[in-house]
Write a structure and sequence with these properties.
Blueprint: E1 2-5, E2 9-12, H1 19-25, H2 41-58, E3 62-67, E4 73-80, E5 94-99, H3 108-123, E6 128-134, H4 138-146, E7 150-151, E8 157-158, E9 171-178, H5 179-186
Antiparallel strand pairs: 1-2, 2-3, 3-4, 4-5, 6-9, 7-9, 8-9
Length: 187
C-alpha cells in the first residue's frame, strides 16, 4: 500500500519481505545510537506488525521509505501518535524517522518529512506536528530545523521510556511546527 510519493521515494506500508531490514534498523548499534535498547528479531517483528496494523487502520504511521528506482527500503519516515509523554497535549502527532547509515546525508529524510508534513496539515488538518530527539542527536535535530520546526525549550523533557541505566539518553529536545507557520512557509 503506497501512502505517499516524493521525487525519489515511495512511502508505503511494511511488507513481509521487509522483516529482515526492519530488524536491521532496530538492532544495529550505529542506527540505534540514541536508543537504550536493541530489538531481537521476534521483538522487531512484533513492532513491525503493530506499525503495519496502525498504518492500515489510520492511513499513516512510521511508514517504510523505499527508493522509487529500485524499491529498496532505506528506513522509515512518518507520523505517529506518541503515548506516555505527559509534556505533550492529548492527541499530539509526532513526525519521526530512522534510516540505515548508507542513506544518511542524501536528503531522503527531509524529502519524505516534507511530504508527511503536507499530509498532516492538508489531509489530516492537524493544528501542529511535533518532533523530539535526544539533545545530542544533531542529525535528527538538523532535519527538524530544515523542515521548519522550532525548538520549544519549555517543552524539553526527560523521556520516561529511557531507563536510569542510560542517563545520557534521557534529555530530549522538543520541536514544534504549527499549521499556520507551515502554510506561511509554503507561500
Amino acid at each position: 500500500m503506497t501512502l505517499l510519493e516524493t521525487e525519489r521515494l515511495i512511502l508505503r506500508n511494511w511488507r513481509e519481505e521487509d522483516r529482515p531490514f526492519f530488524h536491521h534498523i532496530n538492532s544495529d548499534d550505529t542506527i540505534m545510537e540514541f536508543f537504550p535498547f536493541r530489538r531481537n528479531r521476534d521483538e522487531a517483528d512484533a513492532v513491525m506488525d503493530l506499525i503495519r496494523d496502525g498504518i492500515t487502520r489510520n492511513g499513516f504511521g512510521f511508514a517504510a521509505a523505499a527508493l522509487k528506482e529500485t524499491g529498496q527500503p532505506l528506513g522509515f519516515v512518518g507520523l505517529h501518535k506518541p503515548a506516555g509523554l505527559a509534556n505533550l497535549p492529548e492527541g499530539s502527532i509526532e513526525i519521526g524517522w530512522r534510516l540505515a547509515p548508507e542513506f544518511w546525508g542524501k536528503g531522503y529524510v527531509t524529502e519524505a518529512a516534507r511530504a508527511w508534513l503536507a499530509f498532516g496539515f492538508d489531509i489530516l488538518d492537524l493544528d501542529e506536528i511535533v518532533s523530539f530527539a535526544v539533545v545530542d542527536n544533531d542529525r535528527s535535530i538538523a532535519v527538524m530545523r530544515r523542515i521548519g520546526m522550532r525548538h520549544d525549550p519549555a517543552g524539553d523533557f526527560d523521556h520516561p521510556g529511557v531507563p536510569d541505566s542510560h542517563p545520557h539518553l534521557k534529555p530530549h529536545a522538543l520541536y514544534r511546527l504549527s499549521q499556520a507557520d507551515w502554510r506561511a512557509r509554503q507561500g
